[in-house]
Design a protein that fits this description.
This protein is α/β, with parallel strands linked by helices. The chain has two domains: about 20-280, Alpha-Beta Barrel (TIM Barrel), CATH 3.20.20.80; about 305-515, no CATH class. Helix content is about 50%, strand content about 10%. It contains 17 helices and eight strands. An eight-stranded parallel β-barrel has the order 1-2-3-4-5-6-7-8, surrounded by five helices. α4 (about 100-115) links the parallel β3 and β4 (about 120-130). The protein is elongated and about 85 Å long. The model has no long low-confidence stretch (mean pLDDT about 95).
Length: about 525
C-alpha cells in the first residue's frame, strides 16, 4: 500500500510553470475557433451550427482574446463574423479549399461576401489551409486563386500551411500579403519535446522570415495536445500543453511577433480521422466548454489522483482477499515466491488501475471504442484477482483449448473458465493493437497500463504453476509470434525516446513469453 500511495502522490504533483497558460492580465492575441460540439462534425454536410451555440462560445472567448481564426464558411460558420462583431472580436476568416472545384467556388464567394459585409470585423482572409500539404491543389492554381480574391476585397489575403511547404514553394510569397505559417512541434517529422517547443517555434519563425524578406510572418497555428499517444519524445499531456502554450505566448510578447493558438475548444469529431490525439488540442474542453487551466489552479496530469489512488488500493486489497479466500478453502503452505508474485501483481494493479481507467475515459470514442477499451480494462482488472486464485491453488492458467476446444478437453472449473476469458480478451485486443502499431501506427494509442495489469499476473501464474507437459498449442504459438514481431518492429519504429512505446512493447514480450509456455 505504501508503494501505491507513494507513486500516486508523485504522479499527482502539480507542474511548476513560470507562466500561466491564460494570463488574466494579458489576453491571447488570437485563437483558432471551430464551433462543433458532441456529434457535430465538419465531415457531414448535414451539420448546421446554430447562432445560439456560436454566440455562447464567442461570448466566452471574448474574455480571453480579441481575435479568432476560422477555417471555412459553410455549415453555419458564415454566422461567425456577425456574432463576433457583437462581442468585439476580430476575425481572421478562413476559406476552405480542396479538390472539389464547385465547393471551392461556394467557399470563395461566401468569403468575399463576408469580407465586404463585415470590413470592421474581418481583418484578413486565409485562402486555403494546408491544401499543398494534402496535395489537393497545385501551387500555380492556388496562387491564381489568391490573386483573384485579392482583386475583389480590401482586407489582406494570405495562405496557411506547414512551414516546410512555405520554404519549398517560395514563389507563393508573391501572391500573399503576409505569410501564415503552421508550426506544430508535436507533429514535426522529428518530434520536438514540450520543453523545447517554444524555442523550436522561434527558430522556425526566424527561418521563414529570412526566406520571405519584407513579408510579415503570422504563426497561424501553434499548440500542443493534452491527451493521446506519444511521438518519440513528444508527450501529449495537460502539463505539457499548459507549458507550451504559456511559453509560446510569453515568447511572442517578448519578441513582438503575431501568433494564433491552436485551438480554442477540443474537437471530438477529429478523433474519427486522427485518433485520440486529434480531439484534445483545445484550451477549453469540448462538452462542458470549461477552461482546462483556470488562473491560479495547480495543473497536474492526474488531477483526480487521490480517487485513483484509493481505487488502486481497493483493488490491491481485493487481490490479497482473493488469495486468502483460496487458501482458506484449500489449505496450502505457499512459499516465499508465491507471496512475492502475489504482492507484485497486487501492487502493479494498484498503481496502474487509475492510469488505465483515465486512459479509457480519454481514449474511448464511440460505442465501439468504449466497448474495446472497457473490455480491456475489465479483463485487466479481473486478471490479478483470478491470478491470485490460480497462484494459491497451484493451478496454471487455462489454454485456449481448455476454453474453446471440443468436449472432453474443456475445463470444468468456473473460476478457470472466467480466468481464461479474461486471458482471451487480453490477447485478442492486444493483438489488434500490436497489428495496428505495425501497419497503421500514426494514430494508435499505447495501452501500456491495462496490458501490464493483465500480463503480470498471467506471467506469474504460468511461471510458478507451469502447465502440465504436452504439446505447445498452435493458437498460443501464433499469438506469441505476433506479439514478439510487433514488439521488435514498434520498438524500432517509434524510437528509444518513446517510453509509452517501449513499455507497451515490454508488455507484448511478456504476453508472448507467457503464451509460449502454454501446453495442451
Amino acid at each position: 500500500m505504501g508503494a501505491i500511495a507513494a507513486v500516486w502522490w508523485w504522479l499527482g504533483l502539480p507542474a511548476d510553470l513560470a507562466y500561466a497558460p491564460i494570463d488574466p492580465n494579458h489576453k491571447v492575441q488570437c485563437i483558432s475557433y471551430a464551433p462543433f460540439r458532441s456529434n457535430q462534425t465538419s465531415l457531414s454536410p448535414a451539420t448546421q451550427v446554430s447562432r445560439e451555440q456560436i454566440a455562447e462560445d464567442l461570448a466566452q472567448l471574448a474574455k480571453i482574446t480579441d481575435c479568432i481564426r476560422t477555417y471555412a464558411t459553410d455549415l453555419g460558420l458564415d454566422q461567425i463574423p456577425e456574432l463576433a462583431a457583437r462581442v468585439g472580436l476580430k476575425v481572421i476568416q478562413g476559406i476552405f479549399l480542396d479538390r472539389d472545384r464547385r465547393k471551392n467556388a461556394t467557399q470563395i464567394a461566401a468569403g468575399i461576401r463576408l469580407a465586404k459585409q463585415y470590413p470592421e470585423t474581418i481583418i484578413a482572409l486565409v485562402v486555403g489551409n494546408e491544401v499543398l500539404l494534402r496535395k489537393e491543389m497545385s501551387v500555380s492554381d492556388l496562387a491564381a486563386t489568391i490573386r483573384s480574391i485579392k482583386a475583389q476585397v480590401t482586407v489582406p489575403v494570405t495562405y496557411a500551411d506547414v512551414w516546410e511547404f512555405w520554404l519549398s514553394n517560395r514563389e507563393l510569397g508573391d501572391a500573399v500579403d503576409f505569410v501564415t505559417v503552421h508550426i506544430l512541434p508535436y507533429w514535426e517529422n522529428v518530434p520536438i519535446p514540450a520543453e523545447h517547443a517554444a524555442a523550436h517555434a522561434d527558430t522556425i519563425r526566424r527561418r521563414v522570415a529570412a526566406a520571405f524578406p519584407g513579408k510579415e510572418i503570422l504563426v497561424g497555428e501553434i499548440g500542443w495536445p493534452s491527451e493521446g499517444r506519444m511521438r518519440e519524445s513528444s508527450l501529449a499531456s495537460p502539463v505539457n500543453q499548459a507549458r507550451v502554450v504559456s511559453e509560446v505566448l510569453e515568447l511572442a510578447r517578448r519578441e513582438h511577433f503575431r501568433v494564433n493558438l491552436f485551438e480554442a475548444y477540443d474537437e471530438s469529431w477529429k478523433r474519427e480521422i486522427e485518433g485520440t490525439i486529434g480531439g484534445y488540442w483545445g484550451l477549453f474542453d469540448s462538452e462542458q466548454r470549461t477552461l482546462k487551466y483556470p488562473p491560479g489552479v495547480p495543473i497536474s496530469n492526474f488531477p483526480f489522483w487521490k480517487l485513483q489512488m484509493c481505487g488502486g488500493m481497493a483493488l490491491a486489497i481485493l487481490v490479497f482477499g482473493a488469495a486468502w479466500l483460496t487458501l482458506r478453502g484449500k489449505p496450502r503452505e505457499p512459499d516465499l515466491g508465491l507471496w512475492i508474485a502475489l504482492a507484485l501483481s497486487a501492487t502493479t494493479a494498484g498503481i496502474l488501475f487509475g492510469v488505465a481507467a483515465q486512459k479509457m475515459v480519454y481514449e474511448s470514442y464511440g460505442a465501439g471504442g468504449w466497448l474495446l477499451w472497457g473490455s480491456l480494462l475489465a479483463a485487466a482488472t479481473a486478471s490479478p484477482l483470478f491470478g491470485a486464485n490460480a497462484l494459491m491453488s497451484g493451478r496454471a492458467p487455462p489454454s485456449f483449448l481448455e476454453l474453446l476446444g471440443p468436449q472432453g478437453h474443456q475445463t470444468e472449473s468456473v473460476l478457470a473458465t472466467m480466468h481464461g476469458l479474461a486471458w482471451i480478451v487480453t490477447v485478442v485486443i492486444g493483438t489488434a493493437i500490436a497489428l495496428g502499431l505495425v501497419f497503421d501506427p500514426r494514430f494508435i494509442d499505447f495501452p501500456y497500463a491495462a496490458l501490464t495489469m493483465a500480463a503480470v499476473p498471467f506471467a506469474a501464474a504460468t511461471l510458478l504453476n507451469p502447465p502440465k507437459k504436452g504439446l505447445r498449442p498452435m493458437a498460443e504459438s501464433l499469438f506469441a509470434g505476433i506479439f514478439s514481431a510487433a514488439a521488435i518492429y514498434a520498438g524500432f519504429n517509434e524510437g528509444p525516446a518513446n517510453w509509452q512505446s517501449l513499455w507497451t512493447c515490454a508488455a507484448f514480450i511478456l504476453l508472448a513469453a507467457t503464451l509460449w509456455r502454454a501446453r495442451a
